[in-house]
């Protein structure tokens, strides 16, 4: 047996090379697309869900164990005794139940600023940093208006991290206890949040 080209198909090698060359760009495209899918492995699993969180917020303004501290003085304009201009920095405890000694679920870290001249009204800018359960280490960011003398205040959830990536939603706040002497308050929070 000698190695000779099949005389009946002398052009065979060049014909079969052409489709292979044509396939090359498609092969590259396929490889590239599988690389991009590989870099976002959760793409297929991503499904937005609605979660409801319920907890209590403890604003301790008075005493040595205060967790909310005013860092500016009132601007001195607006209604008498207006809190307009007062910025309070907080690291308030969040608990499962209304009792401050009930299980801790997180901290509300950030600030509230007297930003209304006609009534008591705060700009809230805070992170709800969770420290228990499956949301331990995850954070929700709240930015909204809080007139604390209203029975129910609604504040937007503008984002989050950890399990709350891409979060959006709203928080409803109801004061359930207030000490007029110290200014301490316990506020019930109902948070409804869309996330993945
Ligand atoms: C501050 O907290 C400590 C420890 O929980 C407690 O023993 C103390 O009574 C508190 N002080 C005030 C003024 O609330
Ligand atoms: C929350 O996570 C931190 C850091 O991973 C861990 O040290 C802590 O024990 C966790 N807390 C709870 C209540 O699971
Ligand atoms: C409010 O706080 C003051 C000072 O700590 C305390 O004497 C008083 O009992 C508190 N009032 C209520 C309703 O808890």
UniProtKB/TrEMBL annotation:
Pfam families: Dirigent. It is found in: Secreted, Extracellular space, Apoplast. Transmembrane segments: none annotated. GO terms for cellular component: apoplast. InterPro entries: Allene_oxi_cyc_Dirigent, Dirigent. Keywords: Apoplast, Secreted, Signal. Its main location: secreted. Dirigent proteins impart stereoselectivity on the phenoxy radical-coupling reaction, yielding optically active lignans from two molecules of coniferyl alcohol in the biosynthesis of lignans, flavonolignans, and alkaloids and thus plays a central role in plant secondary metabolism. Belongs to the plant dirigent protein family. Homodimer. This is Dirigent protein. The gene is PI206.
